[in-house]
Amino acid sequence: MTKNGIKSLIALAAISLAVYGWGKYNDNTSEAAVSMTQGREEMEGDGHGVAYEAPRWSKAKPEEQMLRRYAYVTSYNRGTRTPNWVGWALTASHTDGDYARGGHKFMEDLDVPEPRATYADIRESECGYQRGHMCPAGDNKWSYRAQNEAFLMTNICPQNGNLNQRDWKYLEEACRDWARRYGTIYIVAGPIFRGKSHNTVGEHRVAVPDAFFKVIMRTKSPSHDAQAIGFIYENQSGHHDMSHYVRSVDDVEKATGLDFFYQLDDKVESKIESRSELSKW
Fold it and tell me: What total number of domains does the chain contain?
């Protein structure tokens, strides 16, 4: 090969590397921009510095360590080794994407102290429960980082397999439909523990919830009709219409000791949280 040919190849390689590097820079800065925008929106919420998807305790607060992730925020309970609640805003643009759950593995969360839940603690063949997401993988396909963090064990509870793969999953799918319809919805989900003692699974004694809750809220824009709805699912097999699980947000608050969507105007909050109308969605 001539010297001119070698110089041409070197120049071509340099251009290729520059284009690749610029593409990666754009990818990274775009994701960082999304993260900054999300963080700002989450912190602003209703304009008073708190996000709609972050409830507060109306009763005595249990053990709690707050964990802010890329796509959600969770209140972690060291005693149960599960979340107290997980909250996130789901937008229409985040209901789909290129980052499906395939290839992602459940991960021990090193941000919480030991003992903590591990992958091996919840094996259906051994304990009878599956690893159930609170913030679902299906809500995080828009970002690799978001999807990866959805598999942290601090976002997981021992969940009946039939419930996980059927009725709970159907509610997750409905939430994505509602996000596409209304633009943005705010979701809080988590376990319900009744009584002072709980069944546990695994070496690290991960508590098994008695039930699960989910509350969803949309604001006036763009639907011009603020609405909220709650659900409670017993942690057991069964197949029912979604209406079977519907509760008012007030009912869920009584069951959990949490105060949801308190950032709203009191009159609006009182009105929408007393309803349990699936037809409004």
Answer: 2
